[in-house]
Amino acid sequence: MIKLFRILILCGFSAVTGCERSVEQEVGSQDSHLFVPEDATDVKLGNRGSSVAFRVKESYPGERFRLALDNQYHPPTWVKLDELVLFPGRRSSEFTGGWAEYVEGANVVRMWAGNWKNEDGAVVTYVVRYRSKDGGPVDPQAVAEVEGLFARSPR
């Protein structure tokens, strides 16, 4: 069941963000609700600026980046949600004990997912992944792969 959930998260998030992700846009055209740290590399925007993918050079478990997310999306404007908006009924990494793991080819992928909702009902979701070869520990020099998605409130 847990493996199926992990696959669904990957497929769902990739489907939402992957449509236009291969088309690179100017970083300045991203939605203002999306957070991209200054040290991010390989920044790619999609879905008319409402999704972003990038890399951050930070060792696992990416505490500095995740703290930056919390600082960006803080109360009273933003509220951290304990349920993944893309998968109703599934809890975010903040409420399930942290990182999920799954196998992708010869790699073990460690994944964290979280989302925040603002006072207008819009939601941002971020997924952070680290890969390790042959199921070993995450290399201390590993680069975090990050995807972010902004969804306006349906009105």
List the helices and strands and how they pair.
Blueprint (H helix, E strand, L loop, with lengths): L1 H17 L22 E6 L4 E6 L6 H10 L5 E4 L18 E5 L2 E12 L4 E11 L10 E8 L4
Antiparallel strand pairs: 1-2, 2-7, 3-5, 4-5, 5-6, 6-7
| Percent range of helical residues | 10-25%
How many helical elements?
Answer: 2
Low-pLDDT residue spans:
1-28
* Number of β-strand runs: 7
Q: Pairing-aware structural class of the strands and helices?
A: alpha+beta
In percent terms, what proportion of residues is strand? Answer: 25-35%
Q: How far is the first residue's CA from the last residue's CA?
A: 34 Å
Radius of gyration: 15 Å
> What spatial form do the alpha-carbon principal axes imply?
globular
Tell me about the largest β-sheet. 7 strands, antiparallel
Explain what this protein looks like in three dimensions.
With 155 residues, this protein is of the alpha+beta class. 17% of the residues lie in helices and 34% in strands. The chain contains 2 helices and 7 strands, in the order αββαβββββ. It has helices at residues 2-18, 63-72, and strands spanning 41-46, 51-56, 78-81, 100-104, 107-118, 123-133, 144-151. Strands 1, 2, 3, 4, 5, 6 and 7 form a 7-stranded antiparallel β-sheet that branches. The protein is globular. Mean pLDDT is 81; it is low at 1-28.
